[in-house]
Amino acid sequence: MALVVNDNNFEETVLKSDKPVIMDLWAEWCGPCRALTPIVEQMATEYEGRAVVCKVDIEQCPDIANKYGIRNIPTLLFFKGGELVDKHVGLTAKATLEEKLNALL
Fold first, then answer.
1. Distance between CA atoms of 99 and 9, rounded to whole angstroms?
2. Are 41 and 1 in contact (CB under 8 A)?
3. Phi and psi at residue 48, in whole multiples of 5°?
4. How far is CA 65 from CA 33, 60, 93, 102, in A?
5. CA–CA separation, 19 vs 31, rounded Å?
6. Is 54 a catalytic residue?
7. Which of 16, 28, 68, 99 has its Cα between 20 and 30 A from that of 80?
8. Which of the residues 30, 85, 89, 104 is marked catalytic?
């Protein structure tokens, strides 16, 4: 299961992770976000122990969304060593996300 990230655990979970991180920024009202959820959850299971897969509800954590200039959702941010290294905006195939995450492993 993907970790839920909020203002309280963002730094520890994402920026201080010793593993690559894929962070899904989403909102409950967003149809494409809901369509992407099963893919994100599958990846959380498949990459357990090798990468951190997490979700941020932008309605509950607008500061995180603002920090990274999120204007459209779903947006997936990829971090390595605490640095933002890649991003994807919009609904996409699992293979696309796997390719981006595998490049960071």
1. 27
2. yes
3. -55, 130
4. 15, 10, 23, 24
5. 29
6. no
7. 28
8. 30
Q: What domains can be seen in the chain, in order of their start residue?
A: 3-100 (3.40.30.10)
33 is catalytic: yes
Which candidate in 2, 23, 33, 44 is catalytic? 33
When pLDDT is cut at 50, 70 and 90, the band that residue 99 belongs to is very high
Confidence of residue 29 (pLDDT cuts 50, 70, 90): very high
Tens digit of pLDDT for each residue in 38-55? 999 999 999 999 999 999
- The rounded distance, in Å, linking the Cα atoms of 12 and 5 is 10
Q: What's the helix, strand, coil split of the chain in %, to 5?
A: 35, 25, 40
CA distance 61 to 93: 26
Q: How far apart are CA 23 and CA 26, in angstroms?
A: 10
Region 95-99: mean pLDDT is: 97
